[in-house]
Design a protein that fits this description.
By secondary structure, the chain is an alpha+beta fold. The protein has helices at residues 2-13, 18-61, 67-81, and strands spanning 93-99, 106-114, 133-141. The protein has a three-stranded antiparallel sheet with strand order 1-2-3, with helices on one face. Helix 2 runs antiparallel to helix 3.
């Protein structure tokens, strides 16, 4: 009987496996946070880059005198500056530039990016994956407003 009480007291005070249990409980949550930060941080960096390319391409297209010249300027800007964004692969970009259907004095540049080949889609899916297509547009008015 005395030996059983001693064993129970010793067992109740033992903390040898507590760290392993805590790690087993917290590691999945920690990994979800880390993978989520890496995945969505990279994705949002690409989204920001695509939006910046669209906005700057629209601004540069203002110098064109005709629709085709504006389209050429927008495409040339995106092609010439995509290297400044290391997470964006130029082969997966498409640029559409045209006058707005709703307002003839507004020129719209749309940049489409197929993000489905990014490295984040090869990571374990601890968190929901973002969409594989990124589409961003920028509109700029023409004329002396």
């Amino acid at each position: 009987m005395i030996q059983a009480r001693h064993f129970l007291r010793t067992f109740a005070r033992a903390r040898d496996g507590a760290i392993a249990v805590e790690f087993a409980l917290l590691a999945p949550v920690f990994l979800m946070l880390v993978f989520g930060i890496v995945m969505y941080g990279s994705y949002l960096a690409v989204v920001h880059g695509v939006q910046q390319l669209a906005a700057e391409a629209a601004r540069s297209s203002v110098a064109g005198l005709s629709e085709s010249e504006r389209r050429t300027l927008a495409n040339a800007y995106v092609t010439g500056n995509v290297a400044a964004y290391p997470l964006i692969m130029p082969a997966h970009l498409t640029v559409t530039a045209a006058t707005s259907a709703s307002d003839a004095n507004v020129f719209v540049v749309t940049v489409n990016y197929d993000a489905s080949t990014m490295f984040i889609y090869t990571l374990p899916s601890f968190v929901p994956r973002p969409p594989g297509a990124i589409v961003r547009s920028a509109a700029i008015p023409r004329g002396g407003y």
